[in-house]
Structure formats: structure tokens, C-alpha cells
Amino acid sequence: MRPPHAALLLLFILAYFRGAYSNGSRSRFTSIISFGDSFADTGNLVMWADPVLPGLLLKNLPYGETFFGHPTGRATDGRLVLDFIAEALGLPFVPPYLDKGGNFSAGVNFAVAGAPAVTLQYLQGQNLIVNPPINSSLYDQLVWFQKLKPSLCKGRQGTDCFGSSLFVMGEFGANDYRSFLLSNRTVEQATAYVPQIVDSVSQGVEVLYMLCTE
């Protein structure tokens, strides 16, 4: 049986962060900037949901009950991997972008539960079911980042602004494939779109790099 490589890599990353900074040494990272879907969302979907998705289950227990004691918008009863990374680096939990009262001095989270790699318009153009039907794709998250960038940088440019920021490009793709399966498409039909989904993520990384270095 082949080992779950993604899970092993994740454990290695967490062990690295915890080991590197558990001895009290100062982290070189002063902020975390995150993109992704429900694996990283710390509250954006819930803040977006009213009144679009009034029955959203993430607003209720048991979500959040084992650590925070109340729902936080995370798709878990406790913390996310992103939360453990922040803790290991001695940084606060990364606030969601849609929290208009949030303090983004130590990071901001653009991830949205249910976010696809490709745009909502593209998926709907293929007559696919999209749930939730909102503009939360990687492209849309990068637009948010571009809008917030001036307030994050405060006049600084490129690496002078983001040189000490840890960028987390979270999981993308699962919700794209889910749209195909929810629409009664075959696995083979969904598989045919793998190159396009991979290209969307690759292009997103390139755009992010450009935005951070210009």
C-alpha cells in the first residue's frame, strides 16, 4: 500500500515549523497570507453567507466546539492546519479578509470554503452545478489581495513589503471536480478537465508572484 504522500508532507511541514521555533528563537516570518478553500477558510464563507446562504451549517455547533467553544466559520470542530502553522510561528490566527474589523498587520486569509480553482462563470458556462454559487475562485481571491495590497504595504514595494510574509497557497481543485460529479458527469469527463484546473492554479501562483514583486 502506498503511503499518503500529501499527509506525510503536511506532517513534515508542521514538524519543521514547530521544531524550528519551539526553542524560543524568533521566526523570520512576521505575517501569513493564505489562499484556498475549506481546508484554510477561517470565516470568509460565513461572513459572506448572510443573507445569501442563511442555512449554512458552518454557523452552528458542532463546528468549533472542541477548541474555540463556538463556531468560527472553520469547516472543523477545532483548528485548521493554517492555525497550527500560525501557532508554531508565534503568530496570531490568520483573520478572514471579509472581517472588516480584522487586524491584518500579521496576516490575512482570502480562502473561502467551496472555492474552485477556475471561475464561477466558467463552471456555469459548462452547465455545472456550483455550490456555493459565489465568486470565490483563486482568481477572485487574487483580486481581493490586489485590492488590499496598498494597505498591507503602506508605500513599500515588492520584497520590502512581503519579504517576511509566509504565503500559503491552499488546496484547490476538489470543488471543481465536485461540480462535475454533482452535475452527474462521469469521472472520465471530470478527469478531462485536470489540465485546465492545474493551469488555473499554476497561473494563479505566477500572478501572485508578480503582484508581490512589482
TrEMBL record:
The keyword Glycoprotein is assigned to this record: yes
Protein name: GDSL esterase/lipase
Pfam families: Lipase_GDSL
Transmembrane segments: none
Coiled-coil intervals, chain numbering: none
Gene3D superfamilies (UniProt xref): SGNH hydrolase (3.40.50.1110)
Record key words, sorted: Glycoprotein, Signal
GO terms for MF: hydrolase activity, acting on ester bonds
Species the sequence originates in: Triticum aestivum
Entry similarity comment: Belongs to the 'GDSL' lipolytic enzyme family.
InterPro entries: GDSL (IPR001087), SGNH_hydro_sf (IPR036514)
Leader sequence residues: 1-22
